[in-house]
Amino acid sequence: MPDQPLQPFSLPTSLAALLPDGVSAGVAIEWFLYVVFAFWVVYTIVAVYHWLQYSHASWAAFPAIAAHLLISLALIGYALSGNASFLSQYLP
Amino acid sequence: MKEFELEPGEHVVLQARKHWFLFLAGMLPYAIIAVIPFALPKLLAFAPPFAPYAAFFNFSMPLPRAVLGVWLLVTWTSAWGAFTRYFLNVWVLTNHRIVDIKQRRYFSREVSSLFLSRVQDVTTNVEGVLPSLLGIGDIKVQTAAEDIEFTMHGIPHPEVMRDVILKYVSIDPKTTGV
Asked: Which pTM was predicted?
């Protein structure tokens, strides 16, 4: 057991030191977000393909796709700008 | 359904998916993961050595907010993917056959047909308090060939499904077109 209290969380400066010259932490975070959103786009395309290919005649297909896009885009907006559109009232 | 074409005179009698309760139970882990960022700061307050870490959960700051947004986006997308797989797993009963569509994961799909004329035995199994109260059970359809067996787990009211299958099995093959 440590006998000293833990220090408040701070960004790991050692990680920032690993970044290439000219790349700030802000740019690294921006690229991280791009990677996450790119993954989301690929995943969404695959899932939508399955909905349209195999459940195209179902009553649930388009509402399910629409709900996914609306909620996801609201969360992406929240991550980028803090504006979560219709979800704003539920998020801090 | 693109997997199979209905023959002339064939129509869909019913479709069965897993019981909604099992689907909701499968959503529970996603719900827990989603509330972690909101609950963690409050839980940290109960552990004084870790209390300073609660400052990281100040979601008015851009970085914690972005992390929260990505966390919720990944959780939501995963839950929606689970719903997609739940919905694409289905049994389709027509007046000629049973079609078992298994969507194990994306790009992994198995579609099997079993003609009702070959059905020898239909067994249902409801076991446990909650399944009995909610009407959740398994159904097993066997043919004369012992190695061919269709089983579906956790469907709502399997006895109703069994009765419908047996109703169409007992109909004169000439009228079913089989």
From this structure: 0.83
